[in-house]
TrEMBL record, chain B:
Molecular function terms from GO: ATP binding; ATP hydrolysis activity
InterPro entries: AAA+_ATPase, ABC_transp_ATP-bind, ABC_transporter-like_ATP-bd, ABC_transporter-like_CS, Oligopep_ABC_C, P-loop_NTPase
Organism the protein comes from: Xylanimonas oleitrophica
Gene Ontology terms: biological process: peptide transport; transmembrane transport
Protein name: ABC transporter ATP-binding protein
Domain ABC transporter: 4-248
Keywords, sorted A to Z: ATP-binding, Nucleotide-binding, Transport
Amino acid sequence: MTSDNVLTVSGFSVLYDVEPPVEAVKDVSLELRRGEILGLAGESGCGKTTLAYGIQRLLRPPAVITSGSAVFHDESGTDVDLGSLTDEQMRRFRWDKVSMVFQGAMNALNPVMTIGEQLGDVFTTHRPGTSRAERTARCGDLLEMVGVGRERLRSYPHELSGGMRQRVMIAMALALRPQLMVMDEPTTALDVLVQREILQQISQLRAELGFSVVLITHDLPLLLEISDRIAVMKDGRVVEVGTASDIYHRAQHEYTRRLLGSFPSLTGDRGDFVRTGAGTSEEVAS
Amino acid sequence: MSVLELSHVTKRYRVRGAGDMLALDDVSVTIASGRTVALVGQSGSGKSTIAKIITQLERATSGQVLLDGAPVPRRGRALRRYRQQVRMVFQDPFASLNPYHTVRHHLERPLRLDHVVPAEEVEAEVHRLLERVRLDPAATVDRRPHELSGGQRQRVAIARALASRPSLLVADEPVSMLDVSIRLGVLNLLADLQRERDLGVLYITHDLATARHFSDEIVVLHRGRVVERGPADDVILRPQHEYTQALLAASPDPDKHFAQTREGTRR
């Protein structure tokens, strides 16, 4: 038994059964350790979102899981094969053990319900016994935890900035203290300053609460800074998995190197990028 | 040689019930042939308002926009001629190209409207333009936007911008909607075209790394004000203003990250 793993995915394949059929995820095997941040990197259409959805059985026809399994290793010691759960068991499992922050999640809040009501729904659904007062208290605590503040419980989504809405979504994802949080492009629509704050907060919360994170994004420089390990996907396959340092220093796969080369260095050497107005900038500017 | 000058431009938007919103506050920027100026800042900093004022989609509340020393015309044929000189490449090539029309139509229109070449040469010029942006004319010319990849669409948008032979190009986040592995290709194309045609380019972006590599000068905008400007490397490597420093500190920079943590991460 690998007790320090939280999730083991083996031989996972997903097919979109359309004409012609598309193999979106091909024979993916991954292990996720308890408490780690795993970056899932790749470009649009590489299958990274389909894989994340597939593991949690969130896909709908025409998507079909054609092979493989995803086994969740609960901290209690029991293993749960997600493929074998009934729909009702799966519904209970989601959010409780594994939660997800969806792409564009900050726009997924209901515009006519307050933040507090929407957070409270998590408890109403998954912890039916919770009293109203306790619900309010816990929702307030959650907002405090992500740096929004409990005074926002009665705010409507449009009264919050994009960054605050995204924090609310993260609070919602952490409400039941899941062991794994999957985040699909959580900061893509946000400014770098807000992005940095939110990512720091996630790292800090992870240190406090000990959950694991799968962070899906095309932004490899970002992943290199905050992930423990990175899996690179291309055409439905994981072409390389390694520690952030290995991916940065010793990328094995040609595609990983190409992806790394797609991001010009902010403060490092120029590399082989074309520069406009070759060499004239200093003279003209002065 | 063309020079476009924004001189002490201020733009105030009237917001109902909330008083005025100062989108640009005394901004001066100069774009000259053969040079790329990057305009960086967060969303809401006023970057796109500058693009709109340059293309005369919006008017400045005060201050002047001058092309080669003359105020930019406000209407009529003179404005058309000005817009022939100053072209725009938009962020989202799916939105900026008409889904009903073929690539040929998109390129023919400016050629005909601006009488760039005689009617019998239009078709040949369309092909030349496509070659310029490294698309295969035979394979592309009869396609509609949805049949092209994002990168190909943006190349068509660039070809269209070049059709009327402008001297200045405003590129508003031209690669942020594209897949990462093709972004540099499109930026390199813009850089090549700029040199070939001695274009002046205003590169509007929030990406400091590409701003550094693809421009001569960087102008940092924060809440409608220019807080810092200078040669690209100076601004990125030796930022003076605290806002620029904060932006740089927040931008992912794996090179710096691994240089600082070398001992810790090498196992």
